[in-house]
Amino acid sequence: VRSDDITRRLVKDLYQNSFLINRVMSSDLTAGSEVMIQGLEEGYNGKSGVVLETGERFKVQVGEETLLVEPGNLVLARKEDVGAGREEEGRVCAICYDPLTEKERAELPCCGNASSTVQYCTECIQVIIERGFNGQVGRCPTCSSFITMKDGKFVVGEQVGACRMCCQQRVIVDSRWVLCDKCVLGGMFTFHYECEKCHNFQAIPHPMWLYQPRPAEFGNVTWACHQQCGDYTHWRITQQDASRVPPEHCPESWGRREEWLESIRQTRRNMGAAAGGGREEEERVEEQVEEQDGGGLARCVMM
């Protein structure tokens, strides 16, 4: 038998055996099965997930992502593998990607507890709150719940009451002036909007951009037009002002979430650089003091 015939047989047997193995494994998988991913690139190998739908390609939930995976790339996961994978994922902040310790992990009242697959560090959550509504209340990066810090702990910031500005029963994010989130944003950002009816522009002290599915689309909430209409019409923010809306206050549909998270990372980097610069300045002063003391000691010895 020639060597090339042997090679072809080996390849054929290998293909048939791999097909049989894949078929046996996929037959054991049903919706709800916990699986491990094998043979994929992009960092998914060894990840655990849950089968959502079966078929020619399986729909698998892996953390916050939903993947379409060939059955041959899935195997039933052992309980210890699933637990280990989740424990490993919980050791990194989902914003800055820094390793987490129990002391550094942010214990949020809504998400990000010890059993969550997505967790955050205390420093990133503090930045979110400081950049939130008047530096008092921020939003959870996962569920968008209002959060604040009280007595060194993160707590729910959803105090409902009558806003002093709009007189509506809303979540109060500014306890000093008793203002809701929308009235605080309106005071912080008075932008210009285009009227859908007369196409004139008007400054509106209310975050009308929150009601726009996209920056270029008109919103679904009306406001009084004081230009030509004399009526309540729909509005859209001007292109120039749309770029000035902070990413943390944009609707999810605007697609600026990653820009928001990157701005938090940049803030953290700047804080680290400032802290490093402060240490360098302290070291420089200490060196100068040592030099001065050394010179004085030398003069004393000479005398």
Describe how the helices and strands are arranged.
Layout: H1 3-27, E1 34-37, E2 48-53, E3 58-62, E4 65-69, E5 74-76, H2 79-89, H3 122-130, E6 138-139, E7 146-150, E8 153-156, E9 159-162, E10 169-174, E11 179-180, H4 181-188, E12 191-195, E13 201-204, E14 222-224, E15 232-237, H5 239-242, H6 257-302
Antiparallel strand pairs: 1-2, 1-5, 2-3, 3-4, 6-7, 7-8, 9-10, 10-11, 12-13, 12-15, 14-15
Helix content percent band: 25-40%
Task: Please state the structural category.
Answer: alpha+beta
* Total count of helical runs of at least 4 residues: 6
Strands, total number: 15
Give, in spatial order, the strands making up the sheet with the most strands.
4-3-2-1-5
Strand content: 15-25%
Instruction: Tell me the span between the first and last alpha carbons.
Output: 103 Å
The rounded Rg comes to 29 Å
Q: What's the average pLDDT?
A: 78
Tell me the major beta sheet: 5 strands, antiparallel
**Bulk shape:** globular
The stretches of 5 or more residues where confidence is low (pLDDT under 50) are: 14-25, 78-90, 295-303
Helix and strand succession? HEEEEEHHEEEEEEHEEEEHH
